[in-house]
Design a protein that fits this description.
FAD/NAD(P)-binding domain, alpha/beta, 3 domains, Glutaredoxin, globular, 25 strands, 8-stranded mixed sheet, 14 helices
């Protein structure tokens, strides 16, 4: 964000490619109290403010997943699932993801009680006991956050004390809903479909103890916060990495390749905090500005700014409506939404209001509302099994395979807009390789993606599966809000999102790319 602000302020044509909602790890931090000049602010609010600042300086945003890069020439190329971008300079600020511990049952129960994102999955453990594994800043911060939902939070720390700042540690130790067990490690978790027990050991005395679900509790949660893995795999063939996978730079944030910079938690550094990330971003953008000026002079390039780009990040407010109208005007063909409602379900009224409000923005979008059981042949056509539900049809009246159970608000507004855009045309630019992989599916497949509207990891999976459905008539992709459809959640014992269910049998959790989804289909 800071790199974007400084680059935009320098009048550079700047694009931020982000796989999730912009803001990085700070956006899931409940309280920011140590940023100079700000007494207290939520991470989400700070992220949005920084985004607004960037946009005020002309920075554009696009949500996409980087598949590969080519930094070998003066013009750097970044390939995403949506197309390829070119630039004279690139700043890599991809950060890091949570590290696994490797205890018995960790992989088996991931998404069924084992979690790594309190913001995404904390609500599933309302009124239950929750264990937090770790002694650093993330563990302390997330333990406090989880007290919003959990009956009790037990922090398991193998160290004799917290390794984060004393101020945060004291908040954890003083919290009435948090118990801390130092010199303790988790050995195993187990159960049936969900967690039923966990075993721990005191690493000083060797004494073991066990936690079992009791009373009316059905399960409990374990959240692991024991460090991060740098997200550098896409750059391993191009940039020099250190032994842990981080991208080394000089004091100007320059990598081993001219014109390519790294900023934030992707770099090896002693202090991984907001204030150091902000400094990295400012330095990287300033360095890139100087490099670009020199390179333009050497290559004889002009400073003329091109126009273009589109962002689908903001929610359905008045400002978004004004942005959506010109986007909907670009639709080449009309699209139709068929909604099957159930008036005995309060969600049906919300779905009807959402779709009616959206359709009023453009004559190219129409909605047909039917009641459950009113037209069985239409329900059968879209395979309606949960209500309310709505599906997208193209201008020829053909079902596209894209279906929703729930309201695509929150982070999922992106999937809704992009699905319509791809159906109506012109649609997003798709590489030939991606289209070939999608076309390789030769048998009918149904992919259900269980999501939470607060999940920042879910939109990528939803949009990818919807693209597969739109480009291959054998694929059906459904978005299901697990909070609003408890029968779906309970059937597959879903305790984490995104949850991917293939052909109502195989269940997998976490963000997946195209190759990983194809592997699930062929399993």
């Amino acid at each position: 964000m800071t790199a974007g602000i400084y680059a935009g302020r320098a009048k550079l044509k700047t694009l931020i490619i982000e796989r999730d909602k912009p803001g990085g790890q700070i956006k899931i931090t409940s309280d920011v109290e140590n940023y100079p000049g700000i007494l207290n602010i939520s991470g989400e609010e700070l992220s949005q403010t920084m985004r607004n600042q960037a946009e005020n300086f002309g920075v554009e945003f696009v949500q996409a997943v980087v598949e590969s890069v080519d930094f070998s020439k003066d013009i750097k190329k970044v390939k995403t699932i949506d197309g390829e971008y070119e630039a004279l300079a690139v700043i890599v600020a991809t950060g890091a993801v949570p590290r696994k511990l490797g205890f018995v049952g960790e992989d088996e129960f991931r998404g069924r009680g084992i979690g790594y994102c309190a913001t995404c999955d904390g609500e599933f453990f309302a009124g239950m006991d929750v264990f937090v594994i770790g002694a650093g800043f993330a563990a302390a911060e997330e333990a406090i956050f989880l007290t919003r939902y959990a009956r009790k939070v037990i922090v398991i720390a193998r160290e004799p004390e917290f390794t984060c700042s004393k101020a945060i540690a004291e908040r954890v130790l003083a919290h009435p809903k948090i118990e801390v067990k130092f010199n303790t490690e988790i050995l195993e978790v187990g159960g049936d479909k969900v967690l039923k027990y966990a075993r721990f050991v005191n690493n000083k005395t060797g004494e073991q103890w066990r936690y079992d679900v009791s009373g009316d509790d059905l399960t409990f949660g374990v959240f692991v916060f024991v460090g991060y893995i740098p997200q550098s795999s896409e750059y391993a063939d191009q940039l020099r990495l250190d032994e842990r996978g981080y991208i080394p730079t000089d004091e100007n944030m320059q990598t081993n390749i001219d014109g390519v910079y790294a900023a934030g938690d992707i770099r090896p550094k002693e202090l991984r905090q907001l204030v150091t990330a902000v400094a990295d971003g400012a330095i990287a953008a300033t360095s890139a500005e100087k490099y670009i000026a020199q390179k333009k002079a050497a290559l004889g390039l002009s400073d003329e700014k091109e126009q273009g780009g589109q962002s689908f990040e903001k929610f359905f407010d008045e400002e978004l409506e004004q942005q959506l109208i010109p986007i909907l005007d670009r639709f080449e063909k009309p699209v139709k939404i068929l909604a099957i409602l159930d008036d005995t379900n309060e969600l049906s009224h919300e779905v009807k209001g959402f779709l009616s409000e959206f359709a009023a923005l453009s004559k190219k979008v129409s909605v047909e509302f039917l009641q459950k059981g009113e037209t069985p042949e239409k329900e059968a056509k879209i395979g309606a099994a949960m209500f309310p539900t709505f599906a997208i049809f193209n201008s020829e009246g053909e079902y596209t395979g894209v279906k929703y159970q729930g309201i695509p608000g929150g982070h999922e507004i992106n999937s809704f807009i992009l699905a319509l855009y791809n159906v109506a045309g012109p649609g997003q630019s798709i590489s030939g390789e991606t289209l070939e992989k999608i076309a390789s599916i030769k048998e009918k497949v149904n992919i259900k993606v269980g999501i939470s509207l607060s999940c920042t990891l879910c939109p990528d999976v939803v949009m990818l599966t919807q693209l597969m459905a739109i480009k291959n008539p054998l694929v059906e992709a459904e978005m299901i809000d697990v909070a609003r459809y408890p029968e779906f959640k309970n059937k597959y014992s879903i305790m984490s999102v995104p949850a991917i269910v293939v052909n109502d049998e195989n269940v997998s959790f976490g963000k997946k790319n195209l190759d990983e989804i194809l592997k699930l289909i062929n399993a």
